[in-house]
Design brief:
Blueprint lengths: L4 H8 L12 H13 L8 E11 L2 E10 L5 E7 L13 H10 L3 E5 L11 H15 L6 E11 L1 H16 L4 E7 L12 H4 L8 H11 L25 E8 L3 H5 L1 H7 L4 E10 L10 H24 L1
Parallel strand pairs: 3-4, 3-5, 5-6, 6-7, 7-8
Antiparallel strand pairs: 1-2, 2-4
Helix pairs in contact: 3-10, 4-5
């Protein structure tokens, strides 16, 4: 499985990223932030980008609200950044939120949920679910349509998006039109088989890195049985909204990402699964210049727009 030639050339000119266990948490966050904010954003134009805070279960939650050009009310997408529940913030995946807002022609509410190890499981999920509820309750103020909502995330954020879909189904509201998941695994811990062995040493993400992040996040192994940590372990998946799942070919957690699709299909959920050749974990962050990332963004946005259109027809 060859690495994408553009990524291969990019990595050839850079020192190898060391295992994350070698970093103190603050240094790891600084390194990820420094490298992320230097990435170019996608060439899109938005009407506005605004920062604010919203009420959360343990205090104020920072959010960033992206509004597309045009006349609302727009669909609403609540987006959760990746980073293993340990790193990342509103800036590190700002480029993804921008691309999503413009491409899906939707108001995107990006959520700065609490991070581990200071805030263990399930803090990130509690903040994120609060943000979904707040977005639905404030749809009109956001120039949005509460009847047209989706959740989205990359990596750890994809796990959060999957969990919020299950939480919304359990609560009966809000009614979500779609779930968009870029390489968020459906099961934890990551099974030591298939892609986990083939790409155990990366590139970019090592299998041990994934285990380290979860070691920082969970309190004990019992947390893995919770559907918020392992969406595949929910008692039922029936009635979930249509789900888009993107995986990266050269990613140790690829098989754990893709394993969720058949579970959903068996429950009667409409699923679109795409594996992106030559891509590595985290590749959508390179949407500003990498064709594979641009394809994954375009596919997710097209899926969201298709589901929003279906929701309008069925209203």
């Amino acid at each position: 499985m060859p690495l994408d030639h553009q990524l291969e050339a990019m990595f050839a000119g850079q020192p190898e990223w060391p295992p994350v266990r070698n970093f103190p948490i603050d240094a790891l966050r600084d390194a990820v932030r420094s490298s992320s904010v230097q990435l170019p954003p996608p060439a899109v134009t938005l009407a506005s980008v605004d920062d604010r805070t919203i009420p959360g279960p343990a205090g104020e939650i920072p959010v960033r609200i992206y509004t597309p050009e045009g006349a609302g009310p727009f669909p609403l997408i609540v987006y959760f950044h990746g980073g293993g529940f340990v790193v990342g913030d509103l800036d590190t995946q700002d480029m993804i939120a921008r691309g999503l807002s413009a491409g899906a022609e939707s108001v995107v509410v990006s959520v700065g949920y609490r991070l581990a190890p200071e805030h263990k499981f399930p803090a990130a999920f509690e903040d994120s679910w609060a943000a979904v509820q707040w977005t639905a309750a404030n749809a009109t103020k956001l120039a949005g349509d509460a009847a047209l909502m989706a959740v989205a995330g990359d990596s750890a954020g994809g796990v959060i998006a999957s969990a919020c879909g299950l939480l919304a189904k359990k609560a009966g509201a809000p009614k979500l039109s779609a779930i968009l998941n870029w390489y968020g695994p459906g099961i934890h811990p990551i099974p030591a088989e298939g892609s986990a062995i083939e790409f155990a040493d990366g590139p970019v993400l090592r299998l041990d890195d994934a285990h380290f992040f979860w070691d920082m996040f969970i309190t004990d192994d019992a947390d893995y049985q919770d559907f918020r940590a392992s969406p595949m372990k929910a008692s039922s998946h029936e009635g979930l909204p249509p789900t888009f799942i993107a995986s990266a070919e050269c990613d140790p957690i690829r098989d754990a990402v893709e394993a969720y699709g058949p579970v959903l299909e068996q429950a009667g959920v409409k699923v679109e699964m795409q594996r992106y050749p030559g891509m590595v974990h985290g590749f959508v962050s390179w949407v500003g210049f990498l064709p594979g990332a641009q394809a994954a963004m375009a596919d997710a946005c097209a899926f969201a727009k298709m589901q929003f259109a279906a929701s309008r027809r069925n209203a």
